[in-house]
Amino acid sequence: DVKVTQSSRYLVKRTGEKVFLECVQDMDHENMFWYRQDPGLGLRLIYFSYDVKMKEKGDIPEGYSVSREKKERFSLILESASTNQTSMYLCASSSPQQGVGFGPGTRLTVT
Amino acid sequence: QQQVKQSPQSLIVQKGGISIINCAYENTAFDYFPWYQQFPGKGPALLIAIRPDVSEKKEGRFTISFNKSAKQFSLHIMDSQPGDSATYFCAASIGSARQLTFGSGTQLTVLP
């Protein structure tokens, strides 16, 4: 099974704060993803990475950035958190053999 | 642009009944169609997946039916159980390891 861990299950931040969401996978996967989940909208892709130091924008990258300095770690950064970024954030990694596996998610509340 | 449309939004089924969730896609380049199951407080878990070279795939009580010409695929849960109560997402991608495009989800409730 794909094992993806996320640094926090719940996070409460204030508007304007810089927020770091950390994700680690132990499967030596090259591909990693950040999704955002909102009721009625499903999961929407924020950013993804197919290699160390590589990143590509997904469908909703505005207000977010990412960092991938090591193969196993993929960080999502909210430069200046806003209330409309209150959401569930899901990290995932993948391989052709195992498909895409998700972490448990971080529920972020921005007040 | 919603590339994967999922219905219904919610579904209530009696124990032992058949649950059916439908999805339609637009991008004909998609060649991998997984279904994910998500319980409250958990991340989505891969349930079953199909490629367009087959019309049906069955794993236990879960079956995917695929209609390439109609660009539709569906999940059938046979003998539905209360433990199947969860949110189900269909998805599509180009290749099994690439970024997934998700449907909006179906909240399934199986009554005891």
What's the assembly state of these chains?
A: heterodimer
**Share in helix of chain A:** under 10%
Number of helices of chain A: 0
Indicate the mean pLDDT of chain A. Answer: 95
Report the order of strands and helices of chain B.
EEEEEEEEEEE
Number of strands of chain B: 11
Strand content of chain B: over 45%
Which structural class is indicated by helix and strand composition of chain A?
mainly beta
Q: What's the end-to-end separation of chain A, in Å?
A: 36 Å
What is the residue-averaged pLDDT of chain B? 95
Shape of chain A: globular
Helical amount among residues of chain B, as a percent range? under 10%
Count the E strands of chain A: 12
Percentage of residues in strands of chain A: over 45%
Taking all Cα atoms into account, the compactness measure Rg of chain B is: 13 Å
